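In keeping with the milestone schedule agreed at the kick-off meeting, the structural modelling team has produced records for the first pair of proteins. Each record is given below as a sequence line and a structure-token line. The laboratory manager (R.T.) confirmed that both were archived under the project's standard naming scheme.
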Amino acid sequence: MSIQDTLNTAYSKWMEDDGPESQIVISSRVRLARNLSEQPFPHVMPQEGGQAVVEQVQGVIADPDAREQLGPMFYVPLEELGPLDRQILVEKHLISPQHASDERPFRGVALSPDEGVSIMINEEDHLRIQVLFPGLQLDAAWEMANRVDDAFENKLDFAFDELYGYLSCCPTNVGTGLRASVMMHLPALAMTNQAGRVFTALSKLGFVVRGLYGEGTEAKGNLFQVSNQVTLGPSEQEIVDSLLAVCRQLIEQEQLGRQSQMRERPAQIEDMVFRAYGVLTNARLINSDEAMFYLSCLRLGIDLGLLHNVSKRTLNELLVRTRAAFLQKDAKDAMDSFNRSLKRADIIREALKVSE
């Protein structure tokens, strides 16, 4: 697999629709922040330091012993990609918006062929190891992230303090350096106006709820990322277990909300689902916010057994295929909002036609 395959294909491993609790949970992510002991943090590191980090990471990826734990991976220098291609990697959740916009040299990403593992190099930290799996698979994601971490730590000297743990550019990542997050579809909590109350309660317990692309992004299409805030003190397994417990509670509340809505407002729910299907299969112009809302309605319709001719994998892929950078990818000239809406509607109609 090459970077062009990644850029030309919307699909990533996290889009599979057969993960545990997939009726509510889209994906599970574990990310580890790591830094090399002999180099300054990236924001104060000279260019030669950045080059040294890249070379060491490439050396580990090519090392036969490390590859037994890592599996095959390929490295992509971000300076060789244009802004549009970098944004596609953001839309596929393979790199962060910050990594895409940073113009410093010697930044890159290492990817597994199925894109389940991605490693950002010289972002806020020297390494950001990410594992992204479909459905509620935090334990499996942590197990894989730990294996990748071990493969690098066997070859590299990470910055570590006996008292504070792994050292990071950002104090909020010191300790385990672990951020776990779960992307959830919570339309019932939103419809019943419970989401705000529930998310406020979560923040008091040390968790944070963000939008589709994490920090600083707005929740759209009833998609929310729930993640831990505390990285210092509890162990990695304790962080994962506590987030799992919270997610199971959210799943239960969402399921109860859906049952309540279908019991008390069946006609309104059915109308919302089939109206969304009618719009998406016939509209000629759809903006981004409309697409996210109507795709959310279709996802709910599938989970409630109202729709049988659309797959959730198709909807997951459309989350990427209908974003601005991916729409622009095949266009020869820059597209304005009108033409993006035109192409977005065409892509959705064709995708749903195939699903029929």
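The second protein of the pair:
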Amino acid sequence: MALAETTARMLDASGASVVVLARAGQDLSKYGLSYSHLGFAYRDTAGGTPVWRVAHKLNHCGSADAALYRQGLGDFFLDRPHRYEAAFVVLSVDAQARLLPLLRDNARLPQWHTPHYNMLAYPWSQTYQQSNQWALETLAGALEPAAATRRQAQAWLQLRGYEPTVLRLRPLTRLGARATAANIAFDDHPNEKRFADRIETVTVDSVFWWLQLAQLGSAPVKVLPGMKLPATVAPKPELRA
């Protein structure tokens, strides 16, 4: 709850209405990754008093299915994270304006959602979808009106230079993961990459890197429980996609 309170204060200070918010739910340090899960935090004014909500995709307790949720910041950080640390990227003014009505719309929010969950889903396939992939494809759909499907959103991301993280997973590692976890599969990955131990997937770190590269967001801002507000966490004026 202390992390949620600090995050809320920093988001308020940013002046943003929509940010990409990440948490360190799992320890991915052996892969060189800092955060495991992201969603969209947005300012909700429906009740009169502005509060921050998080729209994100969650896997059902290790099963092969997932669904979309809206939660408060407290709930977002209550999943026993690996460490109590968050980070957020303030999106460009244009991206915020396009995303905000979508995030509030129950009918449009699932437009790029596939319930078949795979923690290591291949970024350019539509067979499965993991949580970070849903957020990235939804952002693409919001920014590009012609990207009405997952395939079209993925094509737009490729044109805009998004590159997934490449994990080096040996055959025994892949076999063990597939045999013991219902939410991990590799059959959507191209054989030439899978058999070369190259598993590509959407990670928080790759999304954060790409948002800056595409001039769609500011540099990530780290949040720790109780930390003081930085001098500024607002986007640069030129960040307009």
